[in-house]
Amino acid sequence: MVVHRRKKVRKMRGSRTHGYGRVGQHRKSGQRGGKGKAGRHKHLWSYVIKYEPDYFGKHGFHRPFAVQRMPLTINIGELDEMVDLLLDKGYAEKVGDVIKMDLTKLHVDKLLGNGKVRHKFHIVVNNATEKAIQKIKAAGGNIEILEKENSEEQDLNE
Questions:
Q1: pTM beyond 0.85, yes or no
Q2: N or C, which end of the chain has less CB nearby within 10 Å?
Q3: CB 124 within 8 A of CB 144
Q4: Cα separation of 151 and 143, whole Å?
């Protein structure tokens, strides 16, 4: 490193531009044509053509974000209110005094326990809460749970 007294700046004191011509020619990024990738569509176009021909434009396909489906749920009280509609549409059938329905055909993943049960149900579903199971059994019906994990838990509780 050069000692401070021998540096060019000592000789140039008082000269305003220190030998770099008009004001501002040796400041910031003017001498290199801008910072970063500035000027790629202007004065650095020949550089783009030579070294980065694919710099501009769209390339390839961007896969859209896959949305995960939330589990579809229904309350036992809602089912009890919709019994007539479900019977008419063919999603449920009445055998004696028991109403049989398969909620997997309705794409319902889980049966929740809110509401009152006035009918005897035989329901097939992937998953159900404790409260829903208790209400169906209290009304004289039964429930068939398809997922293995939950059916093992139900066996332990009974």
A1: no
A2: N
A3: yes
A4: 10
